[in-house]
Amino acid sequence: MHINLLCVGRLGERYLEAAQEEYCKRLQPYTRLEITEVRDEPFRDTRSRAVVEAVLAREGERLLRRLPAGAHVLALDRRGTMLSSEEFAALLGELGLQGKSRIVFVIGGALGLSGEVLRFAAERLSFSRLTFPHQLMRILLLEQIYRAFKINRGEPYHH
C-alpha cells in the first residue's frame, strides 16, 4: 500500500518536524509513505466570506493538481465521519482488500478544504468535533495510520 499525505502548508516547528520524522520511520516496515506539501495562501480577514472562499479555492486548485490519478482520496474534515482507532484500522484494511493500493489523505490549511476538494474525496473523515491546527493534524493522522497497521497485524501498541 502506498499512502500519501497531501497537505496545505509546512510544519514550521522543529518539534512537529521531529514527530513527523519519527512516525515516518515507524511506518517504513508497513507502507510506502509520501508527504506532499502545497503552498498555503496568505490571508488577513476571515470575516469576509469572499476572502475565505478565494483562499480555499486557490489552495484547493493546488491540492487537486497534486492528486495522483487513480488514488483513493480521503479528506480530513471536521464534518466528516468519526471513527474509533479500530474502525480506522478496519477501513485501511478494507481498502487494501479492495485493491486500493494508493491512498491519499488530504489535510487543508487554516481555513479547511474547498468544496471542490471535498467533492473529489471518496470519503471524509473527522478525528474530533474539536478544531486542530492543520500542522498538528498531520502528526495525529500519522500516529493513527501507524496504530492502524499495528492493530491490523495484531501487534501491540503502547506508545
Structural notes for this entry:
There is one protein chain. With 159 residues, the chain is an alpha/beta fold. It has 5 helices and 5 strands; from the N terminus they run E-H-E-H-E-H-E-H-E-H. It has a single domain, classed as 3-Layer(aba) Sandwich (Alpha/beta knot). Helices cover 44% and strands 22% of the residues. Strands 2-1-4-3-5 form a 5-stranded parallel β-sheet. The mean pLDDT is 95. It is found in: Cytoplasm.
Give the helices and strands, then pairings.
Elements: E1 2-8, H1 14-27, E2 32-38, H2 49-66, E3 72-82, H3 85-97, E4 102-107, H4 115-120, E5 123-126, H5 134-152
Can you describe this structure in just a few lines?
This protein is α/β, with parallel strands linked by helices. The protein has five helices and five strands; from the N terminus they run βαβαβαβαβα.
N-to-C CA distance: 23 Å
Number of domains: 1
Give, in order, the helices and strands. EHEHEHEHEH
Please outline the major beta sheet: 5 strands, parallel
Mean pLDDT: 95
User: What is the CATH architecture term?
Assistant: 3-Layer(aba) Sandwich
Helix content class:
40-55%
CATH topology: Alpha/beta knot
What structural class is derived from the secondary structure elements?
A: alpha/beta
Strand order of the largest sheet: 2-1-4-3-5
H/I helix tally: 5
CATH fourth-tier homologous superfamily: SPOUT methyltransferase, trefoil knot domain
Number of strands: 5
